[in-house]
Design a protein that fits this description.
It is built from two helices and five strands, in the order E-E-E-E-H-E-H. By secondary structure, it is α+β, with helices and mostly antiparallel strands. Strands 1-4-3 form a three-stranded antiparallel β-sheet, with no helix packed on it. The protein starts with a strand and ends with a helix.
Length: 70
């Protein structure tokens, strides 16, 4: 079993909410390697806050520069 953060977008296992499960037996490993695959996505809210803060600082700088020229 594997618990993934965020939304699971791709897997080759059985999915129940945020938990994935694979049934591993010796037969699965007898011929080829068995690949376990899981992919999830989770938003980085702190990155949105940093970019938003930089945009506010940039816009404020442009506005203040425009006021000083007048």
């Amino acid at each position: 079993k594997l618990v993934m953060p965020g939304k699971i977008v791709n897997t080759n296992g059985a999915q129940m909410d945020d938990t994935l499960q694979w049934n591993l037996t010796s037969l699965r490993f007898s011929e080829d390697a068995y690949v376990i695959m899981a992919e999830s996505r989770k938003l980085n809210y702190w990155m949105f806050a940093i970019v938003g803060g930089l945009l506010v600082l940039g816009i404020t700088g442009v506005v203040l520069k425009g006021i000083r020229k007048k």
